[in-house]
Specification:
221 residues, mainly alpha, Tetracycline Repressor, domain 2, 68% helix
């Protein structure tokens, strides 16, 4: 005689394909979104595009990020977090002012060269006066802090030779090469992101910075 057997039914919630709130899953989505946003900007990318690139469902993306704006913001946050780490390490470099300036510029150029699409992406956000403007300002603070730390003791706070003017000049010398890269390549009729071209640009930047130091702040060093 076979007795009645109660079968226990386990009811589980449906989970999106590839479910898992792990760092690995989140990074996979961010990596895909990063590449697409750099290529197409915020408006040129859909969640469907990211899902296809990350080889996951849209439901999985919405599990980790409420909407496309949050996803985009997280891409920016990750970029600026890495940038802050690089710059803070440069602040800790020893030596005189000249040494610390070159160390910081070298570290920043290393960082930008490894992520050459970001300057144009961020410029697009700034020019569109997007909701990420405050986020960008917040994340620019470590970079500005580096400039103020290095130049602040030897340059005035106000005026044409102030440390803040010097910071903007140095920042522009570095970043504009990348923001204008498509235009420069057409003007020069050559690829400017190749290793030899980047090395030439780096040498130019350090040479110009040395001339500026010699002219304006050598007396204070």
């Amino acid at each position: 005689m076979i007795g009645n057997t109660k079968t226990k039914t386990v009811i589980s919630k449906n989970k999106p394909n590839g479910f898992g709130k792990s760092a690995e899953t989140r990074d996979r989505i961010l990596n895909a979104a990063e590449e697409l946003f750099i290529e197409g900007g915020f408006d040129g990318v859909s969640i469907s595009d990211v899902a296809k690139k990350a080889n996951c469902s849209k439901a999985l993306i919405f599990f980790h990020f409420h909407n496309k704006r949050e996803l985009f913001g997280s891409v920016l946050d990750r970029y600026y977090s890495a940038q802050a780490g690089v710059l803070m390490a440069a602040v800790d470099e020893g030596g005189n002012v000249r040494d610390r300036i070159h160390a910081g510029i070298g570290a920043y150029m290393d960082f930008i060269e490894s992520r050459p699409g970001y300057p144009r992406l961020i410029l697009g956000e700034i020019c569109s006066n997007s909701s990420n403007l405050d986020r960008i300002v917040q994340h620019m603070t470590p970079l500005y802090t580096w400039g103020r730390t290095v130049f602040g003791d030897i340059l005035p706070d106000e005026g044409p030779l102030s440390h803040r003017q010097f910071f903007i000049s140095v920042f522009g010398i570095i970043i504009n090469y990348f923001t204008y890269a498509p235009v420069i390549e057409k003007l020069w009729d050559q690829e400017i992101m190749k290793k030899d071209a980047l090395s030439e640009r780096r040498e130019h930047v350090h040479t110009v910075i040395d001339r500026i130091i010699d002219e304006f702040i050598a007396v204070g060093m």
